[in-house]
């Protein structure tokens, strides 16, 4: 629901301005990009379907752009590798008779073919002319595992001619072999998930019992790619979305954090300049920059309508220049997509940006923003450019839009540092001077009594009830237990002030949401703050606590009256009332370096509030320690019950309302 | 004349007291006042132990607050986290164990007191023998092999070299060795309380041991509690060796276990920036002072 507004904006924008709008009619899908709040936003088409080239193949599994500039396809069903010329006609075929069902294909600079044959479960290496160079199957080394199967499906070869093989069902990751067929090791395994239940089982069950369970095993990677720096990328179907794409360094540790991915990825491709493209079983194509930031997602599944650009069973993706080629196994066809001007601008910007040419990339990103003002990656690039130019004020704004908290923090640090360097010395001296002056003043004041008239005035003001109630609040800092006793004995505190305090707590809650610095705010911008819900939550929590606590106390020997509970709870909230706003304001001056100060003070405030509530329950109801704990737990339980009941009632009345509405409509129609 | 007479009178009356005091005052002045003053003065200078200190005003302090990333990002949070958990935690632990021991007859009590007190004396040896073996980073370390047998971890964890765990382990070990001099003082304090107080309280309706603790034991031993609190605060802020001993390096891995004292050592004795180190130690002094004042406010009897 949050994204409706920007969406509307975008649609109007598209209708009025976008020059790419003319191509929209062509594409059978919509294109989305990552926008504010890390949500998907509709954007102009990044790629438009160019052609669907039917090929005389049988269920092909992989398309590969060889270093010689030609496309090669593993024609699985016919047991051969075919070479396409520039007009997509079959120019040559290789490996006939040698191959049974080639599913994985890789060609190195020398034109040597590396083929994973799923029919024979072997790796076949062919010379440039198609003659057999080497063929080997399951590694014989004991390290491979005694009962491990070797079911090669896909493979890549790095610069040192090591083969990284996707073996179906391999829980240890990619199988790493050299060209002689020696097993080197496993690489880049996914992790199995351990649940508490499994840990307990392992603790208490015997070996035989454990053997009866299905073993917990990690998902095996489903496809693999390599970039020019020999970094290896895998996609894994059947794992969580955010870990579905992984990028490994030479040590086999994942370099990508959380990625906006898919659970059904089929193939991945990394281009020369670091653009990542991946396709999933639903015909969606994902494009990322080198760091795994989503640029575009588009594509649609072919449900029998045969529209150009839809995919029935995509198995392989390849980038050729600005075009994307997707091999469709069911259609026996190669689908081509052409990058739009918009996408080209994005690519140019990203390319320069990834190479560290922030300043050079900036004009491209600025142009991208004229196409689509919600393209968050562009703001990131622009912000980094400003930062590099030492234009910190602009960088700060751009980082804020890009929602890059660490960039924002760095920039804020620079800005703050400039100010501090200039003024901190004098400020410290001034503080010291003030301290001495005030010490001297209090001494002299004590002797001469200059402020006596003021003090008398203050005492008069203190006699006003509300002011006294307010000052009473500070007594809780040092003597909480006694102060609650005062409330109980009607000595101090009043309902009026309690309600004022509640009001202030709610206001402080909302204000602190708005005033918290960007770095520490859970919301990307103030516009995202759901004020009504927050107010409702706060009021609901306060109401429920008071009601539940009073009700529970009445049936469990609590001495407090409703009035005591209400006033006591209000005063218990004083740490929040006093400190929430100052902490929020302070957070504007802090950077991530000092995040500790923020979290620590916030935690302290909440802990203090909790402690006050605890003491309140204990003193107001005159409970012992264990009774207090029991009362608080029951109160929380009652609050949950209230909520549940409220929800059930809401659902029931909703039904009733709809029922009556239906009757009225029925009467209207028939009568 | 008159002056001289009154002076002699004063000497006769109070001279001996001052004479007795003078030895201590002299030692205190030489070994406490002078170094603190020197550190305070040095903190306004640039001093590399070779050249004569050069006065640079407040620059050290400004650098500390604005430029020293490590200090703001790791050292200060670490120190406060460490102090907040180990200070009150160790304090409460010391009090609880002292209270438990106080319930025992004399001989087992003395024995247990000795056992509990020993970690704080022998922490260096115990650390090597007990904790380093327990948290050993290879797969035959006790904790690693235990967890791997259960299948919770797949490969051994470098407990003492890993920034994720070092702090937790430091806190654990320090809590274990926190039964120091404060503990002994509290034990003595509890034993000093007149048992008749408890009897009287029981007649007045005190029903549980918790109430006894809160209404009799703690109020009756406020001075010992204050002493214990001050010792705990000073102890936790001064603790620095633990992280370095456990991880075997200063700075600790990725500054995970870096406390203020380590920071001072780092700048003072590894980089020889004495002026800066002095500034950091003045800040440490101020922090200790602040928390001591706070505990004074909390525990001091109100007179």
Describe the structure.
The complex is a heterodimer of chains A (671) and B (303). Chain A is α+β, with helices and mostly antiparallel strands and 671 residues long. In chain A, helix 5 packs antiparallel against helix 6. In chain B, a hairpin with a 7-residue loop joins strand 1 (45-46) and strand 2. Chain B contains 14 helices and 2 strands. Chain B has a single domain (27-122, 166-299), classed as MetI-like (MetI-like fold). By secondary structure, chain B is mainly α. Helices cover 75% and strands 1% of the residues of chain B. Chain B has a two-stranded antiparallel ribbon. The model of chain B has no long low-confidence stretch (mean pLDDT 86). Classes of the chains: A alpha+beta (671), B mainly alpha (303). Chain A binds chain B through residues 191, 194, 198-199, 202-203, 416-417, 420-421, 424-425, 428-429, 593-594, 596-597, 600, 624-625, and chain B through 57-59, 61-62, 65-67, 69, 72-73, 76-77, 80-81, 150-152, 154, 207-208, 210-211.
Please give the structural blueprint.
The complex is a heterodimer of chains A (671) and B (303).
Chain A (H helix, E strand, L loop, with lengths): L3 H13 L14 E5 L3 E5 L3 E8 L7 E4 L5 E5 L4 E5 L5 E5 L7 E6 L5 E5 L4 E5 L5 E5 L15 E6 L4 E6 L6 E5 L4 E5 L8 H9 L2 H6 L10 E4 L5 E4 L9 E4 L16 E6 L5 E5 L4 E4 L5 E5 L15 E7 L2 E6 L4 E7 L1 H14 L3 H14 L4 H13 L3 H11 L2 H44 L3 H11 L2 H14 L1 H9 L6 H21 L15 H25 L6 H11 L1 H13 L8 H26 L4 H46 L1
Antiparallel strand pairs in A: 1-2, 3-25, 4-5, 5-6, 6-7, 8-9, 9-10, 10-11, 12-13, 13-14, 14-15, 16-17, 17-18, 19-20, 20-21, 21-22, 23-24, 24-25
Helix pairs in contact in A: 4-5, 5-6, 6-7, 7-8, 10-11, 11-16, 12-13, 12-14, 12-15, 13-14, 13-17, 14-16, 15-16
Chain B lengths: L1 H41 L2 E2 L7 E2 L3 H9 L1 H34 L3 H16 L1 H12 L7 H9 L15 H11 L4 H12 L2 H10 L4 H12 L1 H17 L2 H7 L12 H11 L3 H26 L4
């Amino acid at each position: 629901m949050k994204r409706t507004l920007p969406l509307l904006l975008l649609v109007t924008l598209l209708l009025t301005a976008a020059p790419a709008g003319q191509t929209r009619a062509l594409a059978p899908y919509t294109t989305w990009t990552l926008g504010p709040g890390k949500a998907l936003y509709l954007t102009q088409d990044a790629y438009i379907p160019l052609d669907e080239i039917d090929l005389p193949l049988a269920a092909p599994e992989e398309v590969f752009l060889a270093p010689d500039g030609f496309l090669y396809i593993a024609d699985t069903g016919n047991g051969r590798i075919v070479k396409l010329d520039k007009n997509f006609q079959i120019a040559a075929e290789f490996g006939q008779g040698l191959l049974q069902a080639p599913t994985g294909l890789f060609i190195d600079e020398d034109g040597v073919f590396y083929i994973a044959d799923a029919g024979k479960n072997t790796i076949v290496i062919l010379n440039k002319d198609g003659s057999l160079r080497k063929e080997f199957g399951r590694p014989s080394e004991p390290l491979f595992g005694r009962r491990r199967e070797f079911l090669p499906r896909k493979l890549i070869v790095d610069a040192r001619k090591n083969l990284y093989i996707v073996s179906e069902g391999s829980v240890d990751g990619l199988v790493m072999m050299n060209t002689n067929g020696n097993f080197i090791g496993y690489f880049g395994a996914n992790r199995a998930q351990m649940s508490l239940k499994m840990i307990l089982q392992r603790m208490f069950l015997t070996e035989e019992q454990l053997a009866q369970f299905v073993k917990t095993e990690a998902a095996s990677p489903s496809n693999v790619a390599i970039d020019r720096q020999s970094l290896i990328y895998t996609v894994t179907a059947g794992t969580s979305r955010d870990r579905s794409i992984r990028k490994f360094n030479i040590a086999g540790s994942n370099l990508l954090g959380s990625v906006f991915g898919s659970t059904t990825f089929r193939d991945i491709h990394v281009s020369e300049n670091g653009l990542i493209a991946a396709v999933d079983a639903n015909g969606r194509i994902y494009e990322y920059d080198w760091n795994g930031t989503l640029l575009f997602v588009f594509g649609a599944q072919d449900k029998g309508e045969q529209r150009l650009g839809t995919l029935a069973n995509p198995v392989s993706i390849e980038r050729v220049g600005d075009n994307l080629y997707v091999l469709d196994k069911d259609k026996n066809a190669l689908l081509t997509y052409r990058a739009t001007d918009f996408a080209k601008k994005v690519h140019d910007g990203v390319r320069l940006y990834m190479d560290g040419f922030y300043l050079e990339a900036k004009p491209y990103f600025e142009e991208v923003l004229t196409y689509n003002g919600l393209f968050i990656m562009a703001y990131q690039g622009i912000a980094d450019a400003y930062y590099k130019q030492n234009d910190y004020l602009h960088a700060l704004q751009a980082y804020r839009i890009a929602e890059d908290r660490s960039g924002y923090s760095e920039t804020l640090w620079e800005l703050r540092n400039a100010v501090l360097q200039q003024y901190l010395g004098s400020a410290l001296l001034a503080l010291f001077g003030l301290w001495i002056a005030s010490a001297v003043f209090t001494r002299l004041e004590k002797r001469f009594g200059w402020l006596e008239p003021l003090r008398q005035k203050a005492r008069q003001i203190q006699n006003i009830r509300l002011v006294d109630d307010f000052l009473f609040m500070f007594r809780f800092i040092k003597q909480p237990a006694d102060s609650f006793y005062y409330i109980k004995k009607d000595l101090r505190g009043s309902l009026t002030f309690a309600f004022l305090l509640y009001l202030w707590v709610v206001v402080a809650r909302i204000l602190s949401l708005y005033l918290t610095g960007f770095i520490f705010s859970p919301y990307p911008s103030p516009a995202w703050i759901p004020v009504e819900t927050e107010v409702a939550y706060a009021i609901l929590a306060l109401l429920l606590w008071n009601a539940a606590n009073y009700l529970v106390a009445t049936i469990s020997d609590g001495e407090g009256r409703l009035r005591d509970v209400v006033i006591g709870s209000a005063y218990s909230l004083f740490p929040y009332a006093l400190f929430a706003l100052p902490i929020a304001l302070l957070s504007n001056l802090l950077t991530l370096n000092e995040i500790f100060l923020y979290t620590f003070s916030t935690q302290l405030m909440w802990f203090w509030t909790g402690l006050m509530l605890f003491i309140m329950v204990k003193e107001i109801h005159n409970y012992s320690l264990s009774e207090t704990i029991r009362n608080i737990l029951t109160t929380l339980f009652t609050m949950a019950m209230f909520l549940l009941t409220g929800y059930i009632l809401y659902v029931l009345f909703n039904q009733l309302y709809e029922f009556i509405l239906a009757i009225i409509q029925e009467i209207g129609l028939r009568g | 004349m008159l002056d001289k007479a009154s002076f002699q009178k004063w000497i006769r009356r109070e001279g001996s007291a001052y004479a007795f005091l003078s030895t201590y005052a002299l030692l205190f002045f030489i070994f406490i006042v002078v170094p603190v003053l020197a550190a305070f003065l040095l903190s306004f200078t640039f001093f590399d132990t070779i050249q004569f200190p050069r006065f640079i005003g407040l620059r050290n302090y400004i650098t500390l607050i604005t430029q020293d990333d490590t200090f703001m990002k790791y050292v200060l949070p670490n120190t406060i986290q460490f102090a907040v958990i180990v200070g009150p935690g160790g304090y409460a632990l010391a009090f609880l164990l002292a209270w438990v021991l106080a319930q025992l007859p004399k001989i087992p009590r003395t024995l247990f007191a000795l056992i509990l007190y020993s970690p704080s004396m022998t922490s260096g040896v115990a650390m090597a023998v007990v904790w380093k073996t327990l948290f050993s980073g290879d797969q035959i370390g006790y904790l690693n092999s235990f967890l791997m047998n259960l299948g919770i971890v797949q490969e051994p964890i470098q407990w003492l070299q890993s920034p994720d765990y070092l702090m937790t382990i430091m806190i654990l070990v320090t809590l274990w060795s926190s039964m120091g001099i404060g503990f002994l003082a509290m034990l003595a304090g509890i034993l000093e309380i007149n048992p008749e107080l408890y009897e009287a309280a029981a007649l007045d309706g005190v029903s549980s041991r918790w109430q006894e603790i809160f209404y009799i034991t703690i109020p009756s031993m406020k001075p010992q509690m204050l002493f214990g609190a001050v010792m705990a605060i000073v102890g936790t802020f001064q603790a620095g060796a633990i992280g370095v001993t456990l991880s075997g390096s200063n700075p600790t891995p990725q500054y995970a276990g870096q406390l203020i004292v380590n920071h001072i050592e780092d700048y003072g004795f590894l980089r020889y920036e004495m002026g800066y180190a002095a500034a950091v130690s003045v800040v440490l002094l101020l922090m200790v002072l602040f928390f001591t004042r706070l505990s004074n406010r909390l525990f001091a009897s109100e007179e």
